[in-house]
Amino acid sequence: MQVVANGVALGAVLFLMGSGLALLLGAMGVLNLAHGAVYMVGAYTTWTLAISQGWPLVGAVLAAGAVCAVLGVILERLFRVIPGRPNEQILMSFGLIYVLGNLAQLVWGPVAKSPFQVAGLQGAVQVGDVAIPANRLAIAAVGFAIALLLWLVQDRTRVGAMVRAGMDDAEMTRALGINLDRVVLAVFVLGSAVAGIAGGIGGLVLGASTNQPMDVLLLALIVVVVGGIGSVPGTLVASLMIGLLDAFSRYQFPEMSSVMLYLLMVAVLVARPTGLSGRVA
Amino acid sequence: MVGVFSRARRVAPVAILVVAAFLLPFLLSTQQESLLTRALIFGAMAASLDLAYGQAGLYSLGHAALAGVGGYTAGLLMVRYEVQSFWLLMLAVAGASAAASMAFALVSLRAKGLYFILVTLALGQMVANLAQQWDFLKTAQAEAVTGIVMPSLGFATIWNPGTVYQFVLVVVVVMLFTIQRIIGSPVGLALRGARENGVRMSALGYDVWRYRVAAIVLSGTLCGLSGALFAFHSGLIAPSNVGVAASGVLVLMAIIGGSGTRYGAFVGGVVVTLLQFYASEWSMERAPMIVGVLFILTALLIRFRPAAASALRGLLRGEASHASA
């Protein structure tokens, strides 16, 4: 049971990491490999506000989301001026990973920040005969709340309909008079804000470090490949699967745990190349 | 007669360059020789990658793992099983990296487009994680395979930085020549055709999937051979040489030099290696920032100065390739 609780909490963080990337990739075919760097900015911002300034955690995480939303606007500008081809997008995102990672090192120092210790989330909640750490419970709650919010936005609102239309046929959507550029801007801002919140709340178990741009990117893209693009429930199911698999394999055969995730990805690719939710990239 | 002269005109500058490069050790310090050797190896690696990346349009962000298979094969055979012969080692490396690239191709080609990039990225990292966690791939209590030396060629050789440089130069020239022959062959043409329009190529009767597998296997094998050279030269191979960051740098080399052109990727590999060295020479701490800013500027430059970029490509005598321009 302890393992399941850990797995669900990890799954919630993975969902927050992956959903922004999946949105961007699905909505406009923008390959923003700097997504992990945005996560890192969120984690460090939360650390500064909640740990060194003593803000309440909720305020700090929301502020991190806001900072990353602004960063999202800047990223959108940068990705708009370069041609929409993989070459330039890869060049741009790797440049951003290097620059943001190194800036973080300059500002916050080369030593990684340990998982955030916040008053009020120290204890454990007793459910039956298992003790679930309160911080993991908080992570899972935030993760599921945001998943619900994203699903409502994508499935039930006008903006969500525009995003889905853009995924299916960008040219036709434009022809119908929808300003797809603005939709892309909105998706960039939303995706980056979610990444920032992920960094803040994920910091409760992962802390903040300058290796995160790469590490988080890899986790996020496994989620995207397994879950498929452009479906919130698909991403959620994939994240929970991966979270549980990681928790169990850490428990059963710790020396091979990180390879297991990639094997799951390979298995999904062989069986269903478009991921669980089945939208074509 | 005209044919002979135009051929001579094409070959002569390259021949002069190679001979000049071969004679360079007489002018350089030991440290510069070592740096240039490294630059040559990365140039060859980037050129091998570009066979899949630029020629076939398969945007792979996992090729450092294939180079790593080569490096680890060479290192382990040498350190654990005491194989010293260069020829035997290279044969084993070619076999191992060909097999690894085949597996890599079979999995990654299940995905298309941007998805393909993500899959190659993850496959590359999988190999790096394996190298990090599997004890068989570590020697002497280190996190890497250490204690690799230059192999024996079967005749009397005295290894010093100068002769290592000359030897690597010869191997790299042979590899580049092989790559040129592949690019110029009907297979190379079919690869570019599949890059431009896969549907039309299959309508013309080409088995596009097979050509793509061939492209990845060829480029992966050559990458593996360059990886073995890297292991010989640096004396060790570590998970960080195999991971995503390393693959990313390879791709950046190819793009900056001009992917899909004749010598672009090789030139890019040499230039970026030198750039990284001098940036870290200038400031160890801020080197990634300098390199990163240059990457961003290059991406923006491609947008704002297409003329400059195409002039550069013209200088490199690249063929016109509009898809990657």
Characterise the protein shown here:
The complex is a heterodimer of chains A (281) and B (325). Chain A is mostly helical and 281 residues long. Chain A is 75% helix and 3% strand. Chain A is globular. In chain A, 55% of the residues are buried. The mean pLDDT of chain A is 82. Chain B is mainly alpha-helical and 325 residues long. Helix content of chain B is 74%, strand content 1%. Chain B has 13 helices and 2 strands, in the order αααααβααααβαααα. A two-stranded antiparallel ribbon of chain B has the order 1-2. Chain B starts with a helix and ends in a 10-residue tail after the last helix. The chains are: A mainly alpha (281), B mainly alpha (325). Chains A and B meet through helix 4, helix 9 and helix 11 of A and helix 5, helix 10 and helix 12 of B.
| Count of separate DSSP helical elements of chain B | 13
CATH class of chain A: Mainly Alpha
What would you call the structural class of chain A?
mainly alpha
CATH topology of the largest domain in chain B: the name is ABC transporter involved in vitamin B12 uptake, BtuC
Low-confidence stretches of chain B: 321-325
CATH class of the largest domain in chain B: Mainly Alpha
Structural class of chain B: mainly alpha
Helix and strand layout, with pairings?
The complex is a heterodimer of chains A (281) and B (325).
Chain A: H1 2-28, H2 35-52, H3 57-81, H4 86-108, E1 124-127, E2 130-133, H5 134-156, H6 158-168, H7 170-175, H8 180-206, H9 212-227, H10 232-252, H11 257-271
Antiparallel strand pairs in A: 1-2
Chain B: H1 2-23, H2 30-55, H3 63-81, H4 86-108, H5 114-133, E1 145-146, H6 161-184, H7 186-196, H8 198-203, H9 208-234, E2 236-237, H10 244-257, H11 264-282, H12 287-304, H13 306-315
Antiparallel strand pairs in B: 1-2
Helix pairs in contact in B: 1-6, 2-6, 2-9, 2-10, 2-11, 3-4, 3-5, 3-9, 4-9, 6-7, 6-9, 7-9, 10-11, 11-12
For the structure shown, list the relevant keywords:
heterodimer, A: 281 residues, mainly alpha, 11 helices, 75% helix, 3% strand, B: 325 residues, ABC transporter involved in vitamin B12 uptake, BtuC, 2 domains, two-stranded antiparallel ribbon, 2 strands, disordered C terminus
